[in-house]
């Protein structure tokens, strides 16, 4: 029996990837939601029962109102009036636009800041560090940088009447899945302890500033259950956990490390998405990401574009294969040979996919033959898949700097400097031979750059060896420019992590 998933018309995507991956929840939003779940499980971080994880996120309406729904603080600050008058005018203006959800009386801030100018500068400082501060998102969907436990809160929708609800557009539960993935990794508890130590220290200066502005934390009324995630274990869970531990071990401030965690999370979740799709579609070959290192027009460009398009089509193949798998169930054959084949097939479809329902909208499907039921669900599942889940590969690969249309007519894999830096920080402890680095990138993430990693492509005559060798040299040149490669000779180069691991020479 498959676990019933609430709030879905039918469960197809959910049984392949979990509930749920969502294209509009970009990697930084996924990590923020993950941290909210972690913040409610600090006693046993990433170590709870896989099916019994609950969390109670913060709302922090006062904090986000001060930062993102407070347009007049600067104009009041510049006015040639006394400090007392500035406070009085600002408090009155803020109260007029308040949500009446604990943000009517902000006079406590006068005891936090010595003068209005300091208050305005603190607002400016926190705004400048926020994610997507200049976007046109509503103010309740903007997020301050996670400086500590008091800076974490969920996405909210607040209507004109002050009715508040959690919004599943930007916090679509992908962060909940991320929590389950890392808690099911072999080294999950070790990572949990490290994250709590590094990111949940409430005594750090920036968190204290956030806490002073927010005041007492505002939490949702009741705890929520996370998931579900269809896999008790997966190699990608362990890979991502090991990557996070590696990044957190580097000799850099945790706020800098967090940027690399976000990029690494996007890459690993993208690979999870593609790997699950391949498995369900019956494709045993590993995921391959053929990357062009942008220089002048290269022979690898077309190959990289083909690789991108092939991976883009994987999830739709998986949707069709998942629905058609019902025909491989022995109960399907038994139903087809029974005295009531339509009823038997209908019951099995409901058990496996929660469809058709008993509602009036689905009455038209009740009397269909089994094969037609399968065709109808494939049609509906593909249509729903195209709206959001089917866009994950394109959206996330662009977000983390893996794909690009620069100097080309179509998308292809062409990693930017930000992603390359994260790969070096993650893979290289101190220093590593360049050839070994290329090999490790292929082993961990399926990234193909040089001729050794692309030997199969050369053997299949899809590209010549020299083109891939040039591609690797282009990468080496890029990394030299970034200060991440040291050349000892024409045939000997080392990739160097400038941050190394703590305690290393």
Tell me what the structure shows.
The strands form five sheets. The protein has a three-stranded antiparallel β-sheet. The protein starts with 12 loop residues before the first helix and ends in a 9-residue tail after the last strand. 41% of the residues are buried. It is built from 21 helices and eleven strands. It is mainly alpha-helical and 505 residues long.
Beta percentage is 5-15%
**Helical percent range?**
40-55%
Strand order of the largest sheet: 8-11-10
Structural class: mainly alpha
The separation of the N and C termini measures: 54 Å
Low-confidence stretches: none
Total helical elements: 21
Roughly how many Å is the radius of gyration? 26 Å
Main pleated sheet:
3 strands, antiparallel
Oligomer: single chain
Mean pLDDT: 94
According to DSSP, the number of beta strands is 11
Task: Looking at this protein, list some descriptive labels.
single chain, 505 residues, mainly alpha, 3-stranded antiparallel β-sheet, two-stranded antiparallel sheet, 49% helix, globular
Question: Brief overview, please?
Answer:
With 505 residues, the chain is mainly alpha-helical. Helix content is 49%, strand content 6%.
Question: What's the helix and strand layout?
Answer:
Layout: H1 13-17, H2 27-39, E1 54-55, H3 61-68, H4 73-78, H5 83-96, H6 116-128, E2 156-158, E3 164-166, H7 174-183, H8 188-199, H9 205-214, E4 224-225, H10 235-248, H11 254-281, E5 289-290, H12 300-312, H13 314-324, H14 330-336, H15 341-353, H16 370-387, H17 392-399, E6 403-404, E7 412-413, H18 417-427, E8 431-433, H19 434-445, E9 447-448, H20 455-459, H21 465-481, E10 485-489, E11 492-496
Parallel strand pairs: 5-9
Antiparallel strand pairs: 1-4, 2-3, 6-7, 8-11, 10-11
Helix pairs in contact: 2-7, 2-11, 3-9, 8-10, 10-11, 11-13, 11-17, 11-18, 13-16, 14-15
């Amino acid at each position: 029996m498959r676990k019933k998933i609430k709030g879905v018309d039918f469960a197809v995507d959910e049984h392949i990837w979990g509930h749920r991956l969502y294209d509009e929840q970009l990697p930084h939003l996924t990590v923020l939601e993950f941290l909210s779940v972690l913040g409610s499980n600090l006693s046993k971080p990433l170590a709870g029962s896989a099916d019994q994880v609950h969390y109670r996120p913060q709302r922090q309406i006062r904090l986000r109102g001060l930062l993102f729904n407070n347009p007049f603080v600067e104009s009041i600050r510049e006015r040639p009036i006394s400090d007392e008058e500035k406070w009085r005018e600002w408090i009155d203006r803020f109260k007029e636009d308040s949500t009446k959800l604990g943000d009517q009386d902000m006079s406590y801030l006068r005891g936090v800041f010595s003068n209005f100018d300091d208050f305005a500068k603190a607002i400016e400082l926190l705004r400048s560090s926020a994610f997507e501060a200049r976007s046109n998102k509503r103010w309740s969907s903007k997020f301050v940088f996670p400086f500590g436990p008091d800076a974490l809160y969920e996405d909210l929708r607040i209507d004109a009447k002050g009715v508040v609800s959690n919004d599943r557009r930007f916090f679509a539960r992908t962060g909940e899945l991320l929590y389950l993935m890392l808690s099911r990794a072999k080294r999950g508890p070790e990572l949990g302890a490290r994250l709590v130590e590094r990111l949940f220290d409430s005594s750090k200066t920036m968190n204290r500033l956030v806490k002073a502005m927010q005041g007492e934390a505002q939490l949702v009324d009741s705890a929520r259950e996370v998931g579900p995630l269809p896999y008790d274990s997966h190699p990608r869970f362990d890979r991502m956990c090991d990557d996070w531990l590696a990044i957190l071990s580097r000799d850099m401030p945790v706020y800098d490390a967090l940027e690399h965690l976000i990029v690494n999370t996007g890459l690993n979740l993208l690979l999870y998405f593609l790997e699950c799709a391949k498995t369900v579609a019956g494709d045993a070959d590993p995921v391959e990401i053929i990357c062009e290192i942008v220089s002048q027009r290269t022979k690898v460009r077309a190959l990289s574009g083909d690789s991108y398009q092939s991976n883009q089509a994987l999830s739709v193949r998986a949707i069709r294969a998942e629905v058609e798998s019902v025909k491989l169930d022995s109960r399907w054959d038994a139903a087809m040979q029974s005295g009531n084949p339509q009823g038997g097939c209908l019951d099995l479809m409901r058990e496996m996919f929660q469809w058709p329902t008993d509602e009036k909208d689905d009455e038209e499907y009740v009397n269909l033959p089994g094969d037609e039921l399968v065709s109808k669900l494939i049609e509906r599942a593909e249509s729903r898949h195209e709206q959001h889940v089917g866009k994950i590969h394109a959206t996330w690969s662009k977000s983390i700097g893996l794909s690009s249309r620069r100097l080309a007519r179509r998308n292809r894999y062409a990693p930017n400097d930000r992603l390359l830096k994260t790969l070096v920080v993650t893979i290289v402890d101190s220093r590593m031979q360049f050839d070994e680095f290329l090999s490790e990138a292929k082993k961990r993430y399926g990234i193909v750059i040089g001729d050794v990693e692309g030997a199969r492509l050369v053997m299949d005559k899809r590209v010549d060896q020299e083109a891939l060798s040039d591609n690797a040299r282009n990468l080496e040149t890029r990394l030299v420019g970034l200060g991440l490669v040291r050349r000892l000779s024409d045939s000997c180069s080392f990739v160097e992590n400038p941050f190394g691991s703590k305690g290393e020479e």
